[in-house]
Design a protein that fits this description.
mainly alpha; elongated; single chain
Length: 142
């Protein structure tokens, strides 16, 4: 196995693990809130019901979970593209690790103290890393 075939695998798997951790946080938060307030599971039939029942400070893990299916989807697709076309190099690997680290920090902030200015700064940095990867791949392809 070479860097071109395995170099992006660990950052991709790391993103999947991050998604699992946020999902578990969301699950524990929701179940804990429902038990504490003696809510019936039937009250959670639709996303609108969940939003109405669970206050904003308890919804952060859910919102972060949704975030992990936005820009990270482009990250996954790009990593697969780069691997399939044997374009993986040190630059892409470093960017992939940076993206993972920044997204993990974003999730940590979002699911804990949730300071928007901090979260937004990390979001912008992670987005820049991803778009640099995308533009580099695009210009290499044309």
């Amino acid at each position: 196995m070479t860097m071109a075939t395995t170099g992006l695998a660990l950052p991709m798997l790391g993103m999947m693990l991050l998604t699992l951790l946020v999902w578990l946080t969301m699950f524990v938060t929701r179940v804990g809130f429902a038990r504490k307030h003696k809510l019936d599971i039937e009250q959670f039939k639709t996303p609108a019901d969940v939003q109405a029942l669970i206050p904003g400070d308890q919804s952060a893990p859910s919102n972060n979970f949704k975030n992990l299916f936005e820009l990270p989807v482009i990250f996954y697709a790009l990593c697969l593209y780069l691997t399939a076309t044997s374009q993986v190099d040190g630059f892409y690997i470093n960017c992939a690790w940076a993206f993972l680290a920044l997204r993990a920090l974003h999730s940590l902030i979002h699911c804990s103290y949730n300071r928007v200015a901090h979260r937004f700064a990390i979001y912008i940095l992670s987005s820049i890393v991803l778009w640099v990867m995308v533009f580099r791949a695009f210009f290499a392809a044309i």
